[in-house]
Amino acid sequence: MSPRRATPRISDPFGTLDSLNVLAHDCWFSWNEIGQRPFSALDPVMWESCKHSPSGVLTGIDPAILEAKIADERFRALVSDAVDARRSYYETASWYEQTYAAETPGMRIAYFSSEFAIHESMQQYAGGLGVLAGDHLKSASDLGIPLVGVGLLYRQGYYLQEFRGDGSTRVLHPNYDFARWPIIDTRAHVDIPIGPNMVRAKIWKLQVGRVPLYLLDADIPENRKRDRLLTNALYQGEPELRMRQQVLLGVGGILALAKMKEKATVFHLNEGHAAFAGLKRLSQLVSRGMTLDAAVQRVRQTTVFTTHTPVPAGHDRYDVEMCWKALRRPLRNAGFTQESFAQFGRERPGSGPICMTVLALRLAERVNGVSKLHGRVSREMWTEVFGRPVADVPIGSVTNGIHIPTWIAPEARSFWRRSVGIDIGNSSPDANPWAAVPSVGRSDFWAMRCALRHKLVGFVRTRLRRQAMARGEGPLDLMCAGEAFRDDALTIGFARRFATYKRAPLIFHDVERILRILTAKDRPVQIVFAGKAHPKDMGGQEFAQMIWRFAHDAGFQGRVALIEEYDMEVGRMLTSGCDVWLNNPLRPYEASGTSGMKPPLHGGINLSVLDGWWPESYDGTNGWAIGDGSENPDNEVQNEADAESLYSLLEQQVVPEFYELGTDGLPTKWIARAIRSATTVPAIFNTDRMVGEYFKTGYLPAFGGVKD
Predict the structure, then answer these.
(1) Residue 382 has pLDDT above 50, yes or no
(2) What is the b/e burial string over 564-595, where b = at least 16 CB atoms within 10 angstroms of the residue's CB?
(3) Mean pLDDT of all residues in 467-495
(4) Where are the domains of the chain?
């Protein structure tokens, strides 16, 4: 299907506009900077205002300006370079084509997720799950793995964040114009039985390199008002609405795959949100003549389930009767009664609600957490479901990673290629180009690190000034915003969801002590925060307000910043520019947050509690560990211990190493630790390794293939 043209007819003898449309409607541009250059050159101001959306630029640009640009030979050269790079991407044989394609004919993996973070211009994600899902699709594309994504398209996305004058959060829900997104109208739809009615869903497609991502949209005129709300916003609404959304994702997703003639052979469910997909598959198999027991076995054999949440409250639970009413038609077709269906989703026989995670566990043969520690926690959490000792619970782990081309700053990408020959775009789950990092020149490395910090400081000042102007603050506040932060000061970053277990304000546990650390005249320290909490998470909202107050306190002003509207762009700026990445969750509630995997690409160093993925990486030389990995059931006692450890590390190791210079004027110990961080973290904690591991340990056995 051809991309939609959003621009008027203009004089275009070279076919440049067609090339621009092709580039704009392939999300390949989101991790290949060369694909973005033509659009940023068309209108730099518009490029920034539409959050770096090529489709947004093409839709909004003045036709006269566009025509003039197309007539410019230098601009056409930019387009030609991007087209050539894209063509080379598709024509180069991928890892899968070279290793497994001949042995797995007909293989197709359907990857379900309730959110996908593909690019900052498309607010279809709330946090880590969406970021991971987007990165998964991009690495699948790079590796050539035959995968297709399935999700929902939300008219209002998650929410946009603004801070009021008192630091409280203003929650904004704009209606997005899909014409400004790189989304393709397939002109197809599916009808999904939800309760007594049929809900019609329009099927949109995002092309993510080699991977199509199909998104269902119920906000269309054919539906009742109640049903149109199903794809209004992400993670909003009451339990019944959430449950019906998940019927749309699971049942509707299976129907959409059939509609688009995607013959999936393996199904990967992320969180319990998509667990109803298994029930729809059971219904289909039984309708074709298979017994229910045989259908259950088939679904289990071909399903991979990843749980991402170690917090019990994070797993959706719904009333049995409510679920039965919504799913009655497909369930009856599969031979279920209300009670037999309930037993599939109950944690304990005979009573209790439907737990979506339990339903997924019972319909998947291959189950994993997202770090080794999270795998252990998950086995302990769900032992009653399996009725086995913890050690025998069949839940493994595949540790998360990041899609390096998406998250590495252009300056760092160029630096690594120039200095040690690392080709970021060459994808293989088995390669380790980062082994070459120790040979890098120390002075060049430090120059790169300082340049990225300088870039971040400029970004922070611009954002703080913009926020102050939006709140109508006075000249003094505007001046302070414009002069905040220093280019040469040790810069700490903290950016993630403001869930309470992540303990964003922990560093302010002892206000006087952290004030002394930040304001030392000869060794200044500065901290930049960003994050969002769910609108109904009052504890998380209070944490955000608390940090806002510290950022505006006279003692901390200019040393502490809070950036509103945490998105992928803000994440990239902070993870590339900060010297230290702070992560202090309450262990063991961080399954495997990925933000800390990004700073090492840029010479940044982790300062983290031994939770999530960090216990697998920390070796005493590549960062710092807050605490000793102990877990006290009294949260206040644990907070006190972790805060003390954090302060001691800052005072005795982190700050001294940054400011202690060798005879060459460079921070010798700091550079050694930073180089060690860049050597050890990216080599393992990347999505090429992660997706390759899913393929070898999950997708391949689920498909039935064998590779010696």
Answers:
(1) yes
(2) bbbbbbbbbbbbbbbbbbbbbbbbbbbbbbbb
(3) 83
(4) 16-91, 95-400+692-703, 443-456+486-685
Greatest alpha-carbon pair distance for the chain in Å reads 79
Rounded percentage of the chain residues whose pLDDT exceeds 70: 97
Equal fold, 95-400+692-703 vs 443-456+486-685: yes
* 3-class secondary structure, 203: strand
CA distance 305 to 113: 11
In this predicted structure, the answer to whether residue 241 has a pLDDT above a threshold of 60 is yes
CA 93 to chain centre: 27
Nearest to 535 by CA among 245, 313, 235: 235
Q: What is the rounded (10 degree) CA torsion for 105, 106, 112, 118? A: 70
CATH 3.40.50.2000 fits 95-400+692-703, yes or no: yes
Residues 6+ apart with CB under 8 A from 576: 407, 408, 409, 411, 412, 452, 455, 456, 598, 599, 601, 602, 604
Coil, strand or helix at 396 = strand
Which class is 443-456+486-685 in CATH? alpha beta
Q: How confident is the model at residue 8 (pLDDT cuts 50, 70, 90)?
A: low
Percentage with pLDDT > 90 across the chain = 84
Q: Answer yes or no: pTM beyond 0.90.
A: yes
Helix (H) or strand (E) holding 148: strand 147-152
Do the beta carbons of residue 525 and residue 655 sit within 8 Å?
yes
Q: What is the DSSP letter of 2?
A: P
SS3 239: helix
